[in-house]
Write a structure and sequence with these properties.
alpha+beta, Butyryl-Coa Dehydrogenase, subunit A, domain 1, Butyryl-CoA Dehydrogenase, subunit A, domain 2, Butyryl-CoA Dehydrogenase, subunit A, domain 3, four-stranded mixed sheet, four-stranded antiparallel sheet, 53% helix, 14% strand, globular, binds flavin-adenine dinucleotide
């Protein structure tokens, strides 16, 4: 595995880093405190071509590598976790249409998603189903010229801001994964509405709302892939979402480490910097090593995604599992190094911790990933 970056990958990393430092970082605390959606940040990313970076011609101008995507995500997360999560969600939704869409669906949706004229969301979770899609209740009844969609989705990132939602719903009353299908649902279809914004512990800048579907007539041509194919399709989309989540974790942890290193040198007690204490030195070393390990696992998962045949995204899920738990640990230690000051809103360290905590719950939880990977390892899945 070649770990060197191509000229294009370096350029994308630098561009994301520049936008993160100049545009995202100065607004990150305010977005977090005011629960404001990062519209302006996403506009700047769209202008730089970042929102369509994985969408190739003729639908976009991108076609960048998966590694470019994770490098960019890490840079964004260092400055603003909310913008990074919104970005990953959008790119993953667009990727779903790129992977599974018909030529008509691609032509209809991808150009606007690539330019950032429209934002994407990915809606699976429901109030009564949680982490397990087998418990979904949203139902799309097959009618001659449309599917009649009823139900609701909860905790959806970008909800209400996104114009295009990938929605998982049952199309068959029978139990089992073959009853689940994926649809492209436009937010402006009659019967689509949004619940109030739920205030979370972290990722405060990302809208987190319920989406309600009441007798929504989803055109038949908006079925993504074949009926009953939601689970395999979600594996493909989920691989990118998992890699993005891992990259957010690495970015948050890296920012926390950088802040801690600076603070350990600047904060003096009795004339001595706190970094002169071995306890703090150990923390810094352990944090740095853990970040390196997570980043290496992420890079190897990116490499395997690009070079392996389709299948369950095991390396991507391992990277998400490891990196998200690592980020909780590293940001927690960063807070400890900052003492009481770290526990205040004066510094971004507490925000890094709150955002990192959300990644272990986002998309597929730590427990669900362990459960799935354990079953695969023991030959119990599918
Ligand atoms: C920041 C953030 C962003 C999100 N964005 C989106 C989004 O864009 N789209 C979307 O669809 N959802 C989104 N979610 C929702 C997220 O996917 C769910 O929170 C997650 O799937 C868990 O569902 P739940 O909260 O209902 O927990 P539950 O399913 O109720 O689970 C509660 C606890 O039980 C554990 N558990 C459940 N089943 C098992 C099992 N079989 N074995 C062992 N443990 C189990 C879980 O791991 C968890 O710890 C987001 C969540 C967060 C925090």
């Amino acid at each position: 595995m070649d770990l060197s970056l191509s000229a294009e990958q370096k350029l994308i990393q630098e561009t994301a880093g520049r936008i993160a430092a100049e545009v995202l970082a100065p607004r990150a605390a305010e977005l977090d405190n005011t629960y404001s959606f990062p519209t302006e940040n996403l506009k700047k990313l769209a202008e730089a071509g970042m929102l369509g970076m994985l969408i190739p011609p003729p639908f976009g101008r991108g076609g960048a590598s998966t590694l470019s995507f994770t490098l960019a995500t890490e840079e964004l997360a260092k400055a603003c976790g909310s913008t990074a999560l919104s970005f990953v969600t959008h790119v993953s939704a667009a990727q779903g249409i790129l992977i599974a869409g018909t030529s008509e669906q691609r032509a209809k949706y991808l150009p606007a998603l690539a330019k950032g004229e429209k934002l994407g969301a990915f809606a699976v979770t429901e109030p009564n189903s949680g982490a397990n899609p087998m418990a979904l209740e949203a139902f799309a009844e097959s009618r001659p010229d449309h599917y009649l969609l009823n139900g609701s989705k909860a905790f959806i990132t970008n909800a209400g801001e996104a114009a295009v939602n990938l929605v998982m719903a049952k199309t068959d009353r029978a139990p089992g994964p073959q009853s689940l299908s994926l649809f492209i649902v436009d937010s402006d279809l009659p019967g689509v509405s949004f619940g109030k914004t739920v205030r979370r512990m972290g990722f405060n800048g990302v809208s987190c709302r319920e989406i309600i579907f009441q007798d929504v007539k989803v055109p038949r041509e908006n079925l993504l892939g074949q009926p009953g194919m939601a689970v395999p399709l979600t594996m493909g989309i989920g691989a990118l979402a998992a890699l993005g989540a891992a990259a957010i974790s690495v970015g948050l942890a890296q920012a926390a480490l950088a802040a801690s290193t600076t603070y350990a040198k600047e904060r003096k007690i009795l004339g001595q910097p706190i970094g002169a204490n071995q306890a703090i030195q150990f923390y810094i070393t352990e944090m740095s090593t853990a970040i390196d390990a997570a980043r290496a696992l992420l890079q190897s998962a990116v490499y395997l995604r690009d070079t392996s045949p389709p299948g369950p995204p095991i390396p991507a899920l391992k990277a998400k599992l490891f990196a998200s738990e690592m980020a909780v640990d590293v940001t927690n230690r960063a807070l400890q190094i900052h003492g009481g000051t770290g526990y205040t809103k004066e510094l971004p360290v507490e925000r890094y911790y709150r955002d990192a905590r959300g990644v272990t719950l986002h998309f597929s939880t730590t427990e669900l990933i362990k459960d799935l990977l354990g079953k695969i390892a023991l030959g119990l899945f599918p």
